[in-house]
Amino acid sequence: MPDLPPTAAGALRLDTALALIRQAGRPLPTGSPDSAAWLQELIDALCDLSSRDALTGLANRRSFEHAIHRESDRVARSGEPALLLMIDIDHFKRINDHHGHPAGDQVIRAVAQALLATIRPMDTVARIGGEEFAIILPNCPPAFGAAVAERVRQRVEREAIGLPSGQTLGCTISIGGAYAPQWVRSTPSLWSERADLQLYRAKSEGRNRTCLEPTPVSIVSPEERGLLFGTSSFEDPQ
Amino acid sequence: MNTAANTTRAPAAGRRARITAVTSGKGGVGKTFLSANLAAALARQGERVLVLDADLGLANLDVVLNLYPKITLHDVFTGKHSLPEAIVAAPGGFHVLLAGSGMIEYSRLTPEVREQLAHTIRELVPRFDRILLDTGAGISDVVLYTTSLADEVLVVATPEPTSLTDAYATIKVLATTQGRRDLRLIINQVTKSGEGRVIRGQLQQVVDRYVSPTLDVPVKLEFVGEIPADNAVRDAVRRRQLLLECLPGSTAAQAVIAAATRLNT
Q1: ipTM for the complex?
Q2: CB B210 within 8 Å of CB B175
Q3: Domains of chain A, with CATH numbers?
């Protein structure tokens, strides 16, 4: 068996990397600074850092792109429906204009925390733009989608956000959602576009609301199933 | 292997094949079995028929027909052989174009695969009277895409609830995403005579209630036939022969022939 090459940590200039990790308030690698394990920890810390949004600690846009690719592949293989929610803070510019940018940052952090509080561990919450967030919910049956999105919206609406000035502020969000269609392979960009379209609808219908793309056509509802098998418990109005 | 390079007639001016996609939503309902035997029945009626393994290597058309050609669609896609070289004569008097196992890597519908498939079908159209596209199971975008290349769609279902649900989902998707308003239906493995028509009626009822109201023109399901559950079918499949070749007198074979006749109306 060939000798493993010695780690060259000593020859590397790692000051900037270590400073970045320290500044982000994350634990520095432990153990002997010349070992492969130490380097691995350093690399893991850098990867983690590069996948997070600095302001909120949520997944950042890069990490979101990675997650949505992985999820659309998974849906295509498993056929389990996944829901993508696109979220935008309502009238965010007004908050910035009236209360200043530090208040705006505080609102963004508070919304991020509220989003994190409503989801399952398997879900991905990302900040993908200034006041824009996205949530990927794997294995989310269409029957639950609307309730999940509504729970997220209400959680943010209930939040009393403490501003640096000592004031408290409320804010609302608009949510657009779309499913990765079962069976149909779809590209991540098409999926995001469809969710964005629903977000646009939520905004134009007055904000502080959730709009989900109508149930994908390939899904057969219990009513349809009932009529198909002639076991419908639903009264025919005619 | 007898390739069809010299047996298919030269393109006749102005003639083009009618392309029928055979699809089902659910797998294992006899789609490939029906494609092959309908092709044989149509060939008997004097049509030049080609069955294309539009499941890109997963259709088991090779298994059903016991054919393992050296040259397949995969070689055409990779430029190793010309299209006529990959067209193979099948036992029932029709031709097949098999995908080859290398095609599994094409299960992702890239723009290149789309273009290659569309090009292949364009080249086939003047050489045949009828092309049956044996599509994959499910409603993947390869299935939707190959179906979109067809003039008409033949949906195969069995009386099983899972098959009916998937057939209905397929009909719904094709109506809403491809603008299909006339779909043809064949019910396989029926246990009672007349069951097929009843099932068509049930499917039509749900379509009328839940699909057509969202569309400009209502969707019509045309009953093409029912194939009885018949031990002859199992025997033929086990022998890896066409039902129409090995047990042509069976009730299932007669039902396939009747369905083929109705396909031409």
Answers
A1: 0.79
A2: no
A3: 61-215 (3.30.70.270)
For residue A186, list chain B residues with Cβ-Cβ distance below 8 A: 141
Percent of chain A with pLDDT over 70: 87
Q: What are the beta bridge partners of residue A89?
A: A173
Is there a contact between B164 and A186 if contact means CB atoms under 8 Å apart? no
User: Chain B residue with minimal CA distance to A225?
Assistant: B165
A136-170 pLDDT, tens digit per residue, is 999 998 788 999 999 999 999 999 999 988 999 99
Beta pairing partners, A125: A135
Quick: pLDDT tens for A188-201.
887 888 899 899 99
Section B182-194 average pLDDT:
97
With an 8 Å Cβ cutoff, are A228 and B202 in contact? yes
Confidence class for position A236, pLDDT limits 50, 70, 90 = very low
Q: How many CA atoms lie within 13 A of B15 on its CB side?
A: 15
The residue type found at A96 is: N
CB atoms within 10 A of CB B64: 25
CA-based nearest distance B118→chain A, Å:
19
Please state the pTM of the whole predicted model. Answer: 0.60
User: Where does residue B160 rank: exposed (0-12), middle (13-18), buried (19+ CB within 10 A)?
Assistant: middle
Chain B: residues touching A (Cβ < 8 Å)? 108-109, 138-142, 144, 161, 164-165, 168-169, 172-173, 176-177, 202-203, 205-206, 209-210
pLDDT score of B2? 43
Instruction: Round to whole Å and give the CA distance between B157 and B164.
Output: 6
Exposure class string for B169-186: b at 16+ Cβ within 10 A, else e: bbbbbbbbeeebeebbbb
At the fourth CATH level, the homologous superfamily of domain B18-263 is P-loop containing nucleotide triphosphate hydrolases (3.40.50.300)
